[in-house]
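Hey L., structure's done. Input below.
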Amino acid sequence: MDEIDRSVLKTIVETANDHFFIVSGDGQILDISPGVEAVYGLSREALLGSNVRELERDGVLRPSISLEVMRTHRPAQLMQVTGTGRRVIAEAHPVFVNGRLERIVSRSRDMTDLQLLQDEYALLQKRFNEHVKRGQSVADDPALDSALEELQVRSHAMREVASLLKRVAPSGASVLMLGESGVGKTAFARQLHRWSERAAGPFVEVNCGAIPENLFESEMFGYQPGAFSGAARQGKAGLLEQAEGGTLFLDEIGELPLLMQTKLLKVIQDGKMTRLGDTRPRRVDFRLVVATNQDLAARVQEGLFRLDLYYRLNVIPVTLPALRDRREDIPGLAEACLVRLNAHYGRQKFLDNHVWSTLMGSDWPGNVRELENWLERAWLSSALDRIEGFESPASPTSAPHTPPTPSAPPPLENETLPAYLARLERELLERGCRTHASTYALAEHLGISQSSVVRKLKRHGLKLR
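Output:
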């Protein structure tokens, strides 16, 4: 490296907002960037004479990300609390020479001030919600009523959500939809798209938990001809490109692999992406809407979700209430579902009056999705046009029914433990495919997420009957 290159690198490090550490393979701090002293509470001289093990022991770094890389030999990201009480997000990468860990390059960003801004924003949002609940913000809106007719929204709580979405739709800002599984996040994301200035563009829906991790990059970013073995001869545009001029809806964003989180963050920041096998970046323009039923803040703390991406996505958080908290929506949802079932199966059936007490009195832990599944089972189980009843929906307060578990078959001769467990998993999935009508029902039966069921079925080459 010549003198000019050294000067360029020195300027980059010294002017960056991040704080850089260069650590030896055995944990000795070799160099740091300016500004580190104020965050970590030690002078440059004291830090340069220290080992990261000592700093973690003394509480200067809680925990040390360099030690994590030394333990795992893999890149890492985590939240730190420094000796001065500052909260920082740290990211570190190993440097290997001939297979030996020689250096660890880490950078950290002080998030304390940003966290204060987030807390202030949360307080303002809380005050706004209280204002709405007093009936001062959600006035009668004929246009809103017309647009929500398809969604069967009658409750005040969901009108609040819809009113907020309608106001933010023209802005183009990223929206984070929160709520339990099955509350209708996808339906409201579509409605947000229809209200936006991008309504004429595409609405591209991606279930982040349903795409195998080894295929995720090619599906999202697309690829050039010959990019990898088995690639289509003409190449393929990825989902990011397909959303050009419209809305990209990433459902189950909490399931996004960490590597893809990094790449998505760069696309959001730069407005550009590059197909696999290509060197030419392409501009992309889409409105990003994401959804999750997970606690993303908790996943950040666990190191499973990038904090910087979390803040990028959390511009306008919108929480959809559970169905048990808006029971006045149940009649409209049930009637609309019945209309669809009658049209699909070509027979006109109706609900007996006494069934309504069951529908209105249930807590519906699976929310709208469970209500629709229950109605379909009841429709199919009824030999008459009058649907008089079916088993009661599960209640979260009642003990779940545990079906008898067949005894596990013994392992085959010389069968390894992974092979044995894979065989048991396949047999269990095969039985479930014969007895359940949807991946959601199978997931509920197995006690795992629907996305996990989809991945496992693909892995074993199975399909629902």
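The mean pLDDT is 81. The CA atoms of residues 157 and 170 lie 22 Å apart.

-- N.
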